[in-house]
Specification:
The structure is a single chain. By secondary structure, the protein is α+β, with helices and mostly antiparallel strands. The protein has eleven helices and 14 strands. 33% of the residues lie in helices and 26% in strands. The longest helix has 21 residues, at 241-261. α10 (224-230) runs antiparallel to α11 (241-261). The chain has two domains: 6-169, Uridine Diphospho-n-acetylenolpyruvylglucosamine Reductase, domain 3 (2-Layer Sandwich); 174-261, 2-Layer Sandwich (Enolase-like, domain 1), CATH 3.30.390.50. The relative contact order is 0.13. A five-stranded antiparallel β-sheet has the order 4-5-10-6-7. Bound molecules: flavin-adenine dinucleotide (FAD). Flavin-adenine dinucleotide binds at residues 25-33, 50, 70, 97-98, 102, 105-107, 109-111, 113-114, 119-121, 157, 162-163, 184-186. Flavin-adenine dinucleotide (FAD) is lined by residues 25-33, 50, 70, 97-98, 102, 105-107, 109-111, 113-114, 119-121, 157, 162-163, 184-186.
Length: 264
């Protein structure tokens, strides 16, 4: 059962910002939030529904970036023509998030703010060198992914801040993303991309507490064994720590091989 809470449905971002505090929290798709409330892990007294704010779902392009509103669902991101034209790797990843319900209800902003470590987007957006725009009544802040995601279920977002959008610098890196998913969430996810500056970047996620970023001048500089030595998985229903370490090496090599051969 859900505990009791108040629900407000503001029509614009300013109204949201006036309401947010430690006890009154944003409610986007609810795929994580409502579950956590049912389990008694989160007990906010009020939810602020973001779904009626069109500005939070907008996806646009400037000369320097693709900007995705935090309230865009996984499906909306995957189907948007700008994302399809400029970030096909993101399309591929979004199409394979969770299940149909999660993709149609869950938002990109909710994924990042919940910071569940087993996330494809935390790793891919780190590989893309994306930034997040946070807004409160005190003003705006722009953070790199590594500054934003501090640990499992832990971000630098203050309780009165709203994640407004995610910006991916243009041209968006190309490459590959591979994941092992034996439960509803990824066990290991690896992005291998070539950046606009020609650098090779590998990001390992889901098996780590926060995405692990490794870069080099060429693919030969990416040391899969060195990466495996850095990850410290925990044993759980998806596999033993030893198995996850082994799989990490396999997936790093696979992502690099795909990115080297021809990228999305
Ligand atoms: C069964 C299942 C399978 C999944 N599989 C995958 C997978 O394969 N890959 C993957 O990457 N992810 C996966 N996920 C995670 C999924 O992507 C997230 O559940 C979803 O994106 C969360 O978005 P939401 O809009 O539902 O967030 P909500 O549940 O509404 O919110 C989550 C948290 O973020 C906060 N929040 C939401 N929006 C904002 C905002 N704009 N600003 C500030 N705070 C905000 C809320 O207050 C809450 O604390 C899975 C989830 C489930 C339940």
């Amino acid at each position: 059962m859900l505990p009791e809470f108040t629900l407000s449905r503001p029509a614009d971002i300013d109204e949201v910002l006036r309401e947010l505090n430690a006890d009154v929290v944003p409610y986007a798709g609810g795929t994580e939030l409502l579950l956590a409330m049912k389990m008694g892990l989160l007990v906010p007294s009020g939810l602020v529904d973001l779904k009626r704010i069109p500005a939070l779902r907008e996806i646009s392009a400037s000369e320097s970036a693709i900007v995705i509103g935090a309230g865009a669902t996984h499906d909306e991101v995957a189907r948007h023509e700008l994302i399809q034209a400029h970030a096909p790797l993101l399309v591929q990843v979004e199409q394979n998030v969770g299940n149909a319900r999660v993709r149609s209800q869950g938002t990109i902003g909710g994924n990042l703010c919940f910071a569940e470590p087993r996330s494809d987007l935390l790793a891919l957006l780190a590989a893309f060198d994306a930034t997040v725009l946070l807004r409160s009544v005190r003003g705006d802040r722009t953070l790199a992914m590594a500054e934003f995601v501090l640990g499992p279920y832990w971000t630098d977002r203050a309780e009165d801040e709203l994640l407004v959008s995610v910006a991916i610098p243009r041209p968006c890196p190309t490459g590959a993303y591979v994941k092992l998913q034996v439960t509803e969430r990824p066990t290991v996810g690896v992005a291998a991309v070539r950046t606009a500056a020609g650098r090779c970047r590998v990001v390992v996620g889901s098996v780590t507490e926060v995405p692990l970023v490794v870069a080099g001048a060429s693919w030969d500089d990416i040391d899969a064994d060195g990466i495996v030595a850095q990850v410290e998985p925990v044993s759980d229903i998806a596999g033993s720590a030893e198995y996850k370490k082994h799989i990490t090496g396999v997936y790093v090599r696979r992502a690099v091989a795909l990115a080297r051969d021809g990228a999305v």
